[in-house]
Amino acid sequence: MRKLSLATVVLFYTLIISCEKGTQVNPNDFFIAANLGSTNWIAQPSTAYLANKDTLQISGSYADGSQNLVMKVPFQGRGNYTLDSSQASFATYNIEGGVSVPTAQYKLDTTQINTVSLDQSNVYVETGSFQLHFIKVSGSSTAANTLTFANGKFWVALPNIN
Q1: pLDDT at position 161, please?
Q2: Contact 130, 118 (CB under 8 A)
Q3: Is the dihedral angle over the CA atoms 120, 108, 112, 35 positive or is it negative?
Q4: N- to C-terminal Cα distance for the chain?
Q5: How far apart are the C-alpha atoms of 149 and 41, rounded to whole Å?
Q6: How confident is the model at residue 99 (pLDDT cuts 50, 70, 90)?
Q7: Residue 162 above 80 pLDDT?
Q8: Alpha-helix residue ranges (DSSP H) falling in the chain
Q9: Residue 121 to residues 40, 41, 117, Cα–Cα distance (Å)
């Protein structure tokens, strides 16, 4: 049922993407979504260029700020990219009195294949998919030791390069 819900959300956004929008882009339409265990994980994205604008950083903050995903993807056009241990991270937080307190930090599990696909882009928007596997490096003993983002999709605004 949850996978069906994520599929519905992704289908909805795919329909939005395919509509003619010209250069007008609504920031509320952007998303990062995946199955995180049994949860339909949907986050508000942000992006930035790193290095010599040859790397696109895509970050997603879960609704209440309690989780944050960061992917650093080589930005060399359409294609499938395998990420190494330094190119993605995930963290969980408790929000206490409006302050984020870290509860667990994760790094990519390099014993598994971690991929990001850049599917389509124009001057304003990038779409793609991802599959990421993480292992806990620090944090609460009650936090999961491993996490997998499966069937990930994103539609994000490209950073302004001015």
Answers
A1: 62
A2: no
A3: negative
A4: 44
A5: 9
A6: confident
A7: no
A8: 2-18
A9: 25, 23, 11
Q: Residue 139: CA atoms inside 13 Å, Cβ hemisphere, count?
A: 20
- Residue 43: CA count within 13 A, CB half-sphere: 26
CA separation for the pair 162, 155 (Å, rounded): 21
Half-sphere exposure of 88 (CA within 13 A, CB side): 28
Quick one: tokens of 70? 């960061």
Tokens read off for 68: 């944050």
Helix (H) or strand (E) holding 104: strand 99-108
What token pair was written down for 33?
């979504």
**CA–CA separation, 124 and 102 (whole Å):** 33
The residue type of 100 is S
* Helices and strands (DSSP H and E) totals, the chain: 1, 10
Task: Decide: 36 and 147 in contact? Cβ < 8 Å.
Answer: yes
pLDDT in tens, 31-81: 999 999 899 999 999 999 997 888 999 999 987 788 999 999 988 888 999
For residue 11, how far is the Cα from the chain centroid?
17
